[in-house]
Amino acid sequence: MALISSDRLRFPCEPWKLVESIHVPGDAGTLETLFSLGNGHLGIRGAHWAGADAELPGTFINGFHETWDIKHAENAYGFARTGQRIVYVPDANNFNVVIDGEQLSLTESAVQNYRRSIDFATGVYECAVTWECRSGAIVTTLERRAVGIDSRGSLGIELSLTADRQVSADITSLVINRQDQPVEDHSAHDPRRSGRHAGRVLLPLHLQGSDGSLRMAWETAESRQRIGMAVDHWISAEGQPFETVVGEDESTVRYVMAVNEGETFRLEKSVSYVVNSADASESDPGEILASDAELGLVPFDALLAEGTAHYRDYWSTADITIGGQPEQQQAVRWSLFQLAQATARAGVAGIPAKGVSGSGYEGHYFWDQEVYLLPYLTYTNPAAARQVLESRHAMLPDARIRAKELSVDGALFPWRTINGLEASAYYAAGTAQFHIAAAISFAANRYQWASGDASFRAEVGADLLIETARMWASLGFFGKDGLFHIHGVTGPDEYTAVVNDNLYTNVMARFNLRAAAALEHPDVPDTERMVWQQAAARMSLPYDPDMEIYSQDNDFMTLEPWDWNTPKSKYPLLLNFHPLVIYRHQVLKQADTVLAMFLQWQDFTAEEKQRAFDFYDPITTGDSTLSACVQGIMAAEVGYSDVALKHFTEALFIDLDNTHHNTVDGVHIASTGGIWSSLVCGFAGMRDQGQVPHFDPRLPAEWDSLSFRLKIRGRLLSVELRAGSISLALVPDSGSPGLGSDAGSAPLEVSVRGQRVVVGVETVTVPLDEVPVPAPSVFPSLFPTAGLPVIGSARV
């Protein structure tokens, strides 16, 4: 059942906020994700402050993780050896509020009014509750939270309280080590969810506190990472805390006082985190860490100012507006807000699949960041895009070692990782996805193309392109047919694993080889360049002449079709069928061949794209949250406007409506990146890495308009679509310093449906003809379902 979109009384549609106006038990974990705050480095889930009202509260720091030895039931050479899992850092968002002897909680207390929100324009979480206390007092609590932007390790929490009569207030502020609390290991039932460690993870190094101030530090038991934490409290009333207690798993600061009628009691909680790796030379590392954390303490008002300034600048570039669709507009802004929260201050680090909003997928970095997130970053925050690519470049030493383990040259990047080592214990859906190498090279090439960053290619880009090209050249081989084949790989569709000549893999490897061969680099000899050129030119691309479509791999068209009478309760298939059952059927978890045709748009004809979409779309389950956005983009290009809008809407509400039933573990950040691509690349038809930026718009008939901005080569390009036209203009004085281009407002040449247009600061409007809806493809009939019933029906 839908959540946000199904109850607009509870979740009113506001353009710049997500609002919950009625508290209803049962959705706490999902809403903790939807109301989370973050800055790419530090994240805090949107849990209520009372422990009884929270389901899966927590605070996370990007990259702060614990390791363990992976135990394989049957071992083999080259298997991943070390697991990695993001750690719940000590959590400051906890209060016990006792009024006249009654502990307030949404679970047990009477609530008169309730409203909480997260403000996209300022980055502030706010929750106001009016309580009818058993003593007869009417008490209102207001909690506000903000994470730092300039001070990225800082968190501020403000709790205020007012009453209609004098009340006795007993308020305890808590810091809780949630990582070492006894919690169910959800991954035993769902591999998408995070597991738990058997032993203690956070070992105390330094525990000190007095007069409302806490200075603490811990070290992870195995990875030997360290975290320091400083917490200060300030109250609006006179007096000192009743007590300050420090412990390795729970620390408290307690205030006991009378709050008079009409007065507002305010408690500010300033929190700062610092992380680093172990250094044996330090005599008292815990005290040093706690002192460093103390330097990062920032007053609450200052954090509010940081957030307001940051989001003012962010939305001036990143906002995307849809005319006449308020509910979709709110959902788009929530998605863009989540993208900002997952990336803004990540630094030279990867972007976890759940950002810093939850522990799902163990906090790992996947190919998601290059294919689904870096398009958004490249065109809205190029400096951040470069940092993500630099984080991949920093993994090259480990990637070269991993390549040797897999008997290939160059570099082999891990399928899922935090620290640069492969953490996927199931190689068929992990290491076999060699296509991550092409995703990284593709993202590097896109960034170079879009930014004009001259230093990037020499410093980072060339290494990524060359080392991945070497991997492809050694992984594949020239067969007796004269073609270049790549065998034993898994493409994006994880329902078809370890195959020969996966089309997506081969198409993207071809791009990778071509881009590397085009480099003029002293480390690339002519003989190696020639091999790359020939491998690209002779790349095997499976094609079925009977169906007249590109096959997902060499054997896909020979597989047994899936039984589409399978009840909905059996989806997602990965939770209900053994992998071998899924692998031997024609069924997709997510777009694969269709994704290849989107990314390598110039390599396929319009007819080839349409026939591929017509064949693969109906047999794609959408069990992956990465699929709907891609299917929508290609439906728009093909001309299926209704289908495109359906897929887009599905993608838009994946988390807001919890359609995959695992939003509790964090925002599907790659899917929110796919929303950006759906709007810019789908409905606006933007394609890049050609001679010039290209637009082929497909504005839905239901929309009045679509507008957005793109940072391209030091310029800020404004784009607006309306029925029958596209308008383009450069925003004056929009140069992006430090990106190798000082073009500023110099004219930019673009293509609109093949027509070259020179765009300057004056708006250029290009008329557009309506796109005809093509006739659907007709394929040779196949037997309708799988299994013995088909055979039985054929008997005479």
Automatic annotation (TrEMBL):
Superkingdom of source: Bacteria
Domain Glycoside hydrolase family 65 C-terminal as annotated: residue spans: 686-758
Keyword Glycosyltransferase carried by entry: yes
Keyword Transmembrane helix among record annotations: no
InterPro entries associated with the record: 6-hairpin_glycosidase_sf, 6hp_glycosidase-like_sf, Gal_mutarotase_sf_dom, GH65_N, Glyco_hydro_65_C, Glyco_hydro_65_M, Glyco_hydro_65_N, Malt_Pase/Glycosyl_Hdrlase
An example Gene Ontology molecular-function term: carbohydrate binding
One of the protein's GO biological processes: carbohydrate metabolic process
Keywords: Glycosidase, Glycosyltransferase, Hydrolase, Transferase
Chain residues that bind substrate: W367, D368, K589, Q590
Enzyme Commission designation: 2.4.1.64
Pfam families attached to this UniProt entry: Glyco_hydro_65C, Glyco_hydro_65m, Glyco_hydro_65N
Residue ranges constituting the Glycoside hydrolase family 65 N-terminal domain according to the UniProt record: 26-274
List of catalytic residues: E494
Domain Glycoside hydrolase family 65 central catalytic per the UniProt entry, residue ranges: 333-676
Family as reported in the entry's similarity comment: Belongs to the glycosyl hydrolase 65 family.
Name listed for the protein in its UniProt record: Alpha,alpha-trehalose phosphorylase
Organism, scientific name: Arthrobacter bambusae
